[in-house]
Design a protein that fits this description.
This is TrmB family transcriptional regulator. With about 280 residues, this protein is of the alpha+beta class. It has 11 helices and 10 strands. The strands form 2 sheets. A 7-stranded mixed beta sheet has the order 4-10-9-8-5-6-7, with helices on both faces. It has a 3-stranded antiparallel beta sheet with strand order 1-3-2. Helix 2 (about 15-25) crosses helix 3, helix 2 packs across helix 4 (about 45-55) and helix 3 (about 35-40) crosses helix 4. The longest helix is centred in the last third of the chain and has 32 residues, at about 220-250. The two termini are about 45 Å apart.
Length: about 280
């Protein structure tokens, strides 16, 4: 337990010696510098340097005199101070970095992303930056990991529309269940994800290969526009299938299979994009 607390303090920007000295004071105080060194295991040659550092940072208090004594700031107060400082730093960073806009080169490039977790991290970043609309084509496995960020986006006033493969249920988004579902997974041999944020950036790729998953992120209008429009046309088709499925399947077969065969170049009707 003590080691966990030391590691936690180190995560709050304490050095190892500072963490040991502060923890010793939490366990017993007030103490002289000599007593802190003895209790904490910090070398006596370093203890006053360490205590001065903690005092200057406001993590401990000093009672001056011929033999100064030290007492810690209570743990709750320490955490509160750290949180306030972190929030101040985040606000400062936000204001400072807001002056920098994405460069023309960045907008014109296509950036590769490798690994399923890394792809989902980029999708989450896209969700967090969206202000008006998110279009998301996704399987249930990935939706479950993105649900929290999507829900927060809706709370910010973002319209979220999902083209769903599998039984995705949502009380906050517009969900369109793809009329093929599992058949698409079988036909393509894997799962992909596509997101369009505010019609200005796109992340698209395969997410069913673990660390070998591949995706691309871009703000290039020459790709963002057609990819976004393909997703919109998928929504058109699902609306049409919802209202006129029987008539369409009379002409084109179940789930429009004849159309899909007509435009497939693979003899086995399997698309091997993920091999």
């Amino acid at each position: 337990m003590k080691q966990i607390i030391l590691e936690t303090l180190k995560n709050l920007n304490f050095t190892e010696y500072e963490a040991k000295a502060y923890l010793a004071l939490l366990e017993e105080s007030p103490l002289t510098g000599y007593a802190v060194a003895k209790s904490s295991g910090v070398p006596r040659s370093r203890i006053y340097e360490i205590l001065d550092s903690l005092a200057m940072r406001g993590d401990i208090l000093v009672s001056p005199g011929n033999t100064p004594q030290y007492t810690p700031v209570p743990a709750k107060e320490l955490i509160k101070n750290r949180r306030m400082k972190a929030e101040e730093n985040f606000e400062l960073a936000e204001k400072s970095l807001a002056e920098f806009v994405r460069s023309v080169n960045e907008r014109g490039n296509i950036w590769n992303i490798t690994g399923r977790n890394e792809i989902l991290d980029k999708v989450k970043a896209c969700i967090l930056s969206a202000k008006k609309r998110i279009l998301l084509e996704v399987w249930k496995e990935e939706f479950d990991e993105l649900e929290s960020e999507l829900r927060q986006a809706v709370k910010r006033g973002v319209n979220v529309t999902i083209i769903a493969y599998g039984e995705i249920v949502s009380d906050f988004a517009n969900v369109y269940l793809h009329y093929m579902g599992d058949e698409i997974t079988e036909e393509y041999g894997g799962r992909w994800i596509v997101i369009s944020g505010d019609d200005s950036e796109v992340v698209a790729g395969i997410v069913s290969l673990g660390e070998d998953s591949r995706a691309a992120w871009t703000m290039h209008v020459g790709l963002v526009m057609p990819i976004t429009e393909v997703m919109i046309h998928d929504l058109y088709l699902m609306e049409i299938m919802e209202k006129h499925r029987e008539l369409l399947e009379e002409s084109f077969g179940e789930n429009l299979v004849h159309l899909r065969h007509k435009f497939s170049i693979h003899p086995d009707f399997k698309k091997h994009y993920v091999k």
